[in-house]
Amino acid sequence: xxxxxxxxxxxxxxxxxxxxxxxxxxxxxxxxxxxxxxxxxxxxxxxxxxxxxxxxxxxxxxxxxxxxxxxxxxxxxxxxxxxxxxxxxxxxxxxxxxxxxxxxxxxxxxxxxxxxxxxxxxxxxxxxxxxxxxxxxxxxxxxxxxxxxxxxxxxxxxxxxxxxxxxxxxxxxxxxxxxxxxxxxxxxxxxxxxxxxxxxxxxxxxxxxxxxxxxxxxxxxxxxxxxxxxxxxxxxxxxxxxxxxxxxxxxxxxxxxxxxxxxxxxxxxxxxxxxxxxxxxxxxxxxxxxxxxxxxxxxxxxxxxxxxxxxxxxxxxxxxxxxxxxxxxxxxxxxxxxxxxxxxxxxxxxxxxxxxxxxxxxxxxxxxxxxxxxxxxxxxxxxxxxxxxxxxxxxxxxxxxxxxxxxxxxxxxxxxxxxxxxxxxxxxxxxxxxxxxxxxxxxxxxxxxxxxxxxxxxxxxxxxxxxxxxxxxxxxxxxxxxxxxxxxxxxxxxxxxxxxxxxxxxxxxxxxxxxxxxxxxxxxxxxxxxxxxxxxxxxxxxxxxxxxxxx
Length: 551
Prior knowledge:
- With about 550 residues, the protein is an all-alpha fold.
- It has 21 helices and four strands.
- A two-stranded antiparallel sheet has the order 1-2.
- It starts with 6 loop residues before the first helix and ends with a helix.
């Protein structure tokens, strides 16, 4: 089974070359390659997860060079679970994007680049979860950064370029800080291999350990978008196409959380910075959800809820008990699926109503009952309504906080309860505005061709006899969009037509994502047991180091 460990990274990278070679000349074959490879990665992830659970951590030294010279990839229970969930989510998002691209007849160059960039992103995410040393982890981050910039700026529209530039600047800063932390670690310990560092870092002076720990937490905190380094996220994600935003929100922030879990348990046991982490968790929860309360743009609203609920995971890491780690792992798995699903639903709402601005849409519960159900289920799941998986994850974290009994733990329990109630309020607000109330008079008529923001900026703003402000005709091709209205955009950022029935692939992918979230509820018992075993393995550290070092 050890030979399977590198394949979740190698398969997408090899498929990227094939996808680039065929491009738009054989578009169907390009789509087939992407779907087939991600399906294979999902199967491999499940096999690795099961094998790691039964046999213990699996590892491979690439080139047969032992640590610290070689590149080590390790698959234990945690990385296997993260690989499985991320593979399932990326496959669903790919199917969604195929439906959107084919419906919009996206045959231009940016869409030919979408599949290679997406496969590279998947390879980077897989490499992050399997990385056995800090340098390989840094390389995985850079792979994700390159692919992320391409996906964020698909179509080259002004808003996407600006958002992508912000994302790249923040990511480059965190990369420089990461490199500095790696250099300090190597200078102090003589290695960057996780298993070797687990034995050598405790021998270093306490000040050196704390400095390295703080630098790594800062890097991973930027990736996870925790307070106070989360301001970039609401400005970067909403401008991207719905499938890109969905996979970014669902996965890329959890990469940072995963790295925190891995390093805090394997490299820095003892919870020296636990109070700091719990303070960060509290402010992430409260500031994030208050930001969501103030939003009327659906994608920005979901972006702020994303920041808020990252706080639950940091809460578990800050408590640093087996129960807390288990609850945090469960909540990460739950949140990957639910947050991705909500952004996919946002894309369907945009296609149905022509905008994500909640003040300009309504009546969707009557007009699109399937869409209403697809929103309602993950919304209630995110809010933590019993007996859904969101409730189970929050309950596990709160029980761990009560069992801890410390002042910070009780404050976090109260903050988590308040955040959950405000999340319910935010989801009810979206439901009332977009679904329950009557359709507003200025909602775009179905079949209207809406432009990208860049196209509308350059269009003639004069109002002619066939462009009556407030009539819903402002989005007709060649006319500017109404002021303040976010217009729908296809994958390549050009025009898109609103429809009463979205493409079947988009709906099917969203249904699959909703079903996956519900499966975590149905299988909550086995999943909770698995996350508890994962938490115990993280705290023990012995199985990981023995698998890598052979002693």
